[in-house]
Structure formats: structure tokens, C-alpha cells
Design goal:
- With 148 residues, the chain is α+β, with helices and mostly antiparallel strands.
- The chain has one domain.
- It is 41% helix and 22% strand.
- The chain has two helices and six strands, in the order ααββββββ.
- Strands 1, 2, 3, 4, 5 and 6 form a six-stranded antiparallel beta sheet that branches.
- Strand 4 and strand 5 form a beta hairpin.
- It starts with a helix and ends with a strand.
Length: 148
């Protein structure tokens, strides 16, 4: 009889140690899940910004290619919104962007370059910055334009 009562007491319920171990395991699992979700959110924001920056860079390269050769063309800046599908807004070179803009593209005035093939050529440089933080996004992009 004594043996049965000891066995029942041993199997009667969970001990404090078992509860502590289960709580620690659940806490670690929850911390890992929260870390994964926050990492995913940051990666999503960065991917969106990088995609918008690539589109802004391609827009500026197309804009430069479509303009006639002009050695006295001034430097300019365009502001872009990464969401909303609004058209780029032209501002003064390295000037402030309107609200809702997240990227500013600064296009330097064309610099003369030497070429054996063409009499005159220009080097255009595009620098992308986040707005309003004005932190650079990637490296500057350069393109050349020749007077044919």
C-alpha cells in the first residue's frame, strides 16, 4: 500500500523544475521567432528601397541619353517616392525634396573627357541618396556621351 501511494505522489503533477524548463524553452522559441520576423521586415524595407534606387538610376540614365549633347548643361537633382507611383520631381542641385520623397538623384554637370574616337565627349555622374537622411545608396553611376 505504501508503495502505491508513493507512486501516485510521484506521478500526481508537474514539479516546479519541469515548469521552469518548459517556460525557458518557450521563451527561447518566442525570442527566435521575434528575431526572424524583425529581420524579415528590415530585409523587406531594404529590398524596396534598393529596387526604387535602381529604377531612379535607370530613369536618370535614360534621361541623359535622350538629351542632346550640350557641354554647358547644368547639374540637377530629381526626387523620387519609393511608393505611390508619383512622377519624379525636379529640384535645385542637391536641394530639398518635397514630402513623400525617399530618394534624391544628384546628376553632376557633364565633365569633359578625352577620347580617340570622338572629338568631344562628356562624363555624367549620378549619385543616389536616401531622403531626408541624405545617406548614399550604393556607389555613384557614371555614363559617357559623345558628340558625333
Amino acid at each position: 500500500m505504501e508503495r502505491r501511494s508513493r507512486r501516485r505522489r510521484a506521478q500526481a503533477g508537474t514539479t516546479l523544475v519541469e515548469l521552469l524548463v518548459a517556460t525557458v524553452i518557450m521563451g527561447l522559441a518566442l525570442a527566435i521567432l521575434i528575431g526572424l520576423f524583425s529581420t524579415g521586415a528590415v530585409d523587406s524595407i531594404l529590398a524596396s528601397r534598393d529596387g526604387a534606387a535602381q529604377a531612379a538610376s535607370e530613369y536618370e540614365l535614360d534621361k541623359i541619353a535622350s538629351q542632346p549633347f550640350d557641354p554647358s548643361h547644368p547639374a540637377y537633382s530629381d526626387c523620387f517616392a519609393s511608393a505611390g507611383g508619383t512622377a519624379p520631381v525636379g529640384v535645385a542641385y542637391q536641394g530639398g525634396c518635397p514630402s513623400g520623397s525617399t530618394i534624391r538623384a544628384d546628376v553632376n554637370a557633364p565633365a569633359a573627357c578625352s577620347s580617340q574616337t570622338f572629338q568631344t565627349c562628356q562624363q555624367w555622374t549620378i549619385v543616389l541618396n536616401s531622403w531626408p537622411a541624405a545617406a548614399p545608396i550604393g556607389k555613384p553611376v557614371s555614363t559617357y556621351k559623345a558628340n558625333q
